[in-house]
Fold these 3 entries.
Entry 1:
Amino acid sequence: MGLAAASANAHEYADRAKDAAKDVAGQAKGYVNERASAASANTNEYLGRAKDAVEGAADKAKGFVNERTSAASANLNEALDRDPSASAGQDLKNKAQAVGAAVSANTNEAIGEAKDAVKDAKDTVKGPFDQEKKAMGEEGAGVVAALVKNNWVDFKLEKVEPYNHNTNIYTFSFPDPNASAGGVTASALLVKSSDAQDCLDDKGKPVIRPYTPISPQNQKGTMDLMVKDGKMSQHIAHLKPGETLSFKGPIAKYAYKPNEFAHGFAIGGGSGITPMYQMITHSLELPEDKTKWTLMFANVTENDILLRERWDKLAKEHPDRFKVVYSLDKPSYFWRGEKGYITKDMIQRYLPKDNSKDVKFFVCGPAGQYAAVCGPKDGSKQGEIKGALGELQYDNDHVFKF
């Protein structure tokens, strides 16, 4: 009778331990669902962290319970081995009760440790949500990013603002007005037609182009693209407000860090100016960032200078941190800026005199400019530094090609 009771107790507590493990797993699953609902499916990166952290907690909880149950069973077997002849009596009853109490204590300890593990997992995942939300000026958990890295999403065209003879600024709205584009500075995105049959190349495949938004990464509800003439821009130009365009991203290009270098030297041409605008404006808005910037921007004519009014405004607002230099291939008679292609001598004139080595160059423009300034990229790799910057003895640690 006592032996049967002891076995029953052991099985009962083992069942409780299994139930505890299921409860922990349920809490874990509920937490993931809670985060997914709060932050939306677009926060894939953080949901991935949540899933990993909670699965780890569930495994840890299961391990605790299995470990404690095994220990309790071993205790019971040890007690029975010590007195195999006993079949009844107070001695065996006491041993069974002691084993049962040990199983209960071990199970409660396992449940407690499992709950602590799940709590730690929640805190681990909650941190990044709160930190990013706080960085955007809001308290609470869950930053909603409109872009999805591995999926195409449609954004609605809200308005078109003509900029010059061959460039427009397009404003697209997100389905969630509280969402922002997401991604680090500097990031690009991919664009294609929402209709699979529109905007195809010569082989009948969808035309896909990369763009860098000129709106801040944390701008809520909308995103601005500056688009020059081209295959994709012709498609975008035919869109009417209310129609959509498909986007995928963000594609991280360069993870900018405040004060990583003393002086940033951006060299751009044509529409290659957009990643420079994203990065420089971001830097100038950071109160803790002391990085100084020089922008050297080459164009054909004065009318081709994109975002000129914004660059000039930034130079006026931040005279100690930002200087802009324009160079034109076909200047007018009254032009007082630089003339011609960007050369080694032109770059040398604007290098910081006090410390020309603590400089990071960023280059983005047409193929000819890459060849002359820094050498072309090697596929997706940065490639050897050639051209003007190579002649100035700068290497890959000092040059980044967008």
Entry 2:
Amino acid sequence: MKKLIGIILLCSLMVSGLQPASAADNDKASINEKFGLPIVVYGETLSSQQKKEVQKQLGMDEGTEVEEFTATGEDLVKYIDGENRNARMFSSAMITRKEKGEGLKVNIVTPENITEVTNSMYSNALLTAGVENAVVDVASPVKVSGHSALVGIYKAYDVSGEKLDTVRMEVANEELSVATELAKESGIDKEEVSKLLTEIKKEIAEQDPATKEEVEKIVEDKLQSLNIELSPEDRQLLIDLFEKMRSLDINFDNVQQQLDDLTKDIQTTIKDIVNDEGFGQKVSDFFTGLLEAIGNFFKSIKNLFG
């Protein structure tokens, strides 16, 4: 009987070890009464079925308490100057406000469907826009670039009563466009682009440049130190972008810790991407452990009836 109980326990452990993580394993916690319910903003183009799919992607079980809104074409032109109000908008976002000091964390929960923007690109742009101390989950049921998710995030802050600076939002959108363009046109890895933008911001916070020439030197120095080659046109895109940030007098000192955390996250992601040998070893170790568990299972059966 003891052997039989042992076999049952072993089977239970094996099955539980193979089960995927549930939605409860993410960053969603109890409601913070100071900030209210999490806010979910859906892209206007979603069908009713796609909306249900997005809710599932965001971990919203039946009865999950959130505030729900829709980001429309009118919102797009309201928050981002020069955009098309007839644009199709699928990207959706859930924003959960956090206490000061907890930092900004972005999770793309459908990375297979957000084709141009990465977690770190969103984080960089949102810090520029003035978004801090929040967990932001982004999802789409179809393949999209991911740019319209920014509109939903801006709207979430607007309806919650915390209006973000309009000009900073526009610069943040330009930053996201520059980041994705550099990744596509220059052939630079998306995370390397994010690292470049983050490092330039940190250097601007430290040096507090007073002229465009000083901004240009910071950009050139970072390109050289990170060993990134860009065309003269792409270099100018970066210089113009950060000159706009300088003229807005954005105080990146206020988010220095979040920039440092973002740098660490980017470095970890880059390491995971390039460390194929380590990844292969992890896979090998997993299957080795699985085979050993199966072998021990059948060995227990044999001992039971032997």
Entry 3:
Amino acid sequence: MSDRPDSREPEVLVIGGGATGIGTARDLALRGVDVTVVDRGGLCSGTSGRSHGLLHSGARYAEADERGAAECIEENRILRRIAGAAIEDTGGLFVGLADDDADYFAEKRAACEAVGIPTETLDPDTAREAVPDLADDVERVMRVPDGVVYPSRLIAANALDAEAHGATIHPHAPVESITVEDGRVSAVALGGSVDGTVRPEYVVNAAGAWAGEVAAMAGLEVEMQPTRGVMVSVEYDGLGPVLNRCREPDDGDIVVPHGDEVVLGTTSVPVNDPDDYEQARWEVETSIEECAAMLPDVADAPVVREWWGVRPLYAPDEAERGGRGISRGFFRLDHAADGVDNAVSVVGGKLTTYRMMAASTADLVCDRLGVDAECETAERELVGADDPERLDEAITRFDGQGPTDVDVVGTAD
């Protein structure tokens, strides 16, 4: 919790302490807005902290979602500049096996070039110089600027920066009710660490997969279609680049390096309740089996840990596109159109594009509040970004440790 004196009448209340919520708070605070952030758990306790931790280059989406791919490569470059110890510059390989469609590989490469994502085509022998244990039937390889992001550190750095510019942060402060009067949110009752009522001028709903539940408290409808996905971390020392299977997105097509472990993932299964869903063994087994098609040694590697995450997907977009992995775009829903003038929900998106989502949301909020200030988050390095020890201390203070990077946080020299 922030050491700043409690404010029960902030200009902006941000609901959700994941990457987008904390990123929005940082952005607003840098623009001089008095902002308070609340989360029902510790920071990073939702989707952000339960991902596979891939810093997307955009290559995964290039042939199907040109705009999304362009956003990824832009934000990839920004995060490499501003996020310090929250990012690992590993590079990535897209790997085509003998049975994979060669035309799809060529299409993806051409799409990457069209979007501005740098690629380098490698022959399998050259690729094995970087990854000696690649499968024997690898026939096509393309290098792209993927990387690894440690979400606990990323969110802690954003939180430190937001605090440094006046934000108040309250983990373990669940929203209990939202009062709407005369077309405006007039009060938000909080439990837990706050146990009181705040009266903001504007409310940002950045609750991720739970955004629909938060919106419903204000009599609003935000249709979410969350999907679950499993991540499996196994012992494997020394993988350099991220590995991506170069085929239509499917279960078990990403291997993410984490020191002496690798994270295998993932699945995509619709769920009705982001707090109550099956954790099926077939998902673990499929992820291991499919990833082993690229990197055979992981098939029998000891499993260190498993975790599931829930994606905050926007139902109308999922229904329109009708396919797994086709879009991970974000949506900024201005609820003035729904009769509540001082509320916005931001849903969808990817961890890689959190800063862009936050900037778009902060632009709308500042417009509504009459704040004339530009976004600065792309140019300013995050507070503590180059001090892993400070970031890891902040993770403890904010109760912000997610399972994605538990093997990394606190191990820095």
